[in-house]
Amino acid sequence: MNFLIIDKETRIHEKGFISYEVQSLLNELESRNLKHTFARYADIEIYLEGNEIKIKCLEEDINTFTHIILRGHWTDKENFIKYTIACYVSKYEIKMLNAKFIAKFPFYNKIAHMHFAGENHINYLNTYYQPNQKHLLNKLPLIAKSGFNENEIVRNEQNDLKLKKKIELISSLEELNDLNTNYSAQELIYQEFINIGEDIRVYLINGRYINSYIRKATDSFVTVRKGKYTLYKPDLFFIEFCENISKKFEVDFCGLDIIYKGNQPYLLELNQAPGFKVLETKVSTLQESNLAKQIVDFMID
């Protein structure tokens, strides 16, 4: 067996740093003495010669690998590279994590997300792209997010460059006008705001529920990176809801972000390369979860 793991470049001020998730996968492969290579999307070469597509990674033909794991991406361009790889390896006996899912979405962004959820009757919050402003005023408050995989580059308090996702809470006409001044209508989607101060991150492998935790907002409405985390013990209905979503998306490994609207769970986002450092270091333990081991087990089964 010969594994290839490809990841996005890490945060701008941490160039070259390997994420917890990738390091966990590398450690798992090393512990089993399985041959492996780690690369970035910048290491991918794509050729069309003699009407034949060829893809290389670090100057090696990608079809020399038996197993491929593609981690996250910053931009739609990187996601399209993932899509191209997924389509290419389907011609070979290569097991690629989330291959069917990635091949569904040449561009996997919020707009693709809302469309797939609607077509497949998945509970999804009311969402708007390029809406008439009068229509939006009747829907406030709303969350405004980037509709595409684009991030701002800003400086933090230490003067380091970092990537910042666009996300704003809009509660008034004035805030909506300010947002329209700073961003074009084509950049953003708007989503109804559910003011319960928490959501749930869920992990699934091969359509099977693995673990989950609650993220409670503390000093803002944002639960990610500014929240308090506690292990979640779901009921059977919740587990079946999540497993049904993963099966409809045909995703091997994913993280679902779920929020309750009334007494019904709704999908916020499906992440096909979720982080799991919080799960294994803050709300559970490596021994209890060990997602890297479970991912490799699934890949070689």
What do we call the CATH homologous superfamily of the largest domain?
ATP-grasp fold, B domain
Strand order in space, largest sheet: 16-15-14-17-18
Report the count of strand segments. 18
- What is the helix content? 25-40%
- CATH class of the largest domain reads Alpha Beta
Describe this entry's structure for a reader.
The chain has three domains: 2-104, 3-Layer(aba) Sandwich (Rossmann fold), CATH 3.40.50.20; 110-123 and 196-300, D-amino Acid Aminotransferase, Chain A, domain 1, CATH 3.30.470.20; 127-192, no CATH class. A five-stranded antiparallel sheet has the order 16-15-14-17-18. It has helices at 20-31, 76-89, 99-104, 110-119, 133-137, 173-182, 236-249, 277-283, 291-300, and strands at residues 2-7, 35-40, 44-49, 52-57, 60-61, 67-70, 95-96, 127-129, 142-146, 152-155, 161-164, 167-170, 188-192, 198-205, 208-217, 227-231, 253-261, 264-271. Strand 10 and strand 11 (161-164) form a beta hairpin. Helix 1 crosses helix 9 (291-300). The longest helix is centred in the first third of the chain and has 14 residues, at 76-89. 29% of the residues lie in helices and 32% in strands. It is an alpha+beta fold and 301 residues long. The protein is globular, with a radius of gyration of 20 Å. It contains nine helices and 18 strands.
Helix-strand layout with pairing:
Elements: E1 2-7, H1 20-31, E2 35-40, E3 44-49, E4 52-57, E5 60-61, E6 67-70, H2 76-89, E7 95-96, H3 99-104, H4 110-119, E8 127-129, H5 133-137, E9 142-146, E10 152-155, E11 161-164, E12 167-170, H6 173-182, E13 188-192, E14 198-205, E15 208-217, E16 227-231, H7 236-249, E17 253-261, E18 264-271, H8 277-283, H9 291-300
Helix pairs in contact: 1-9
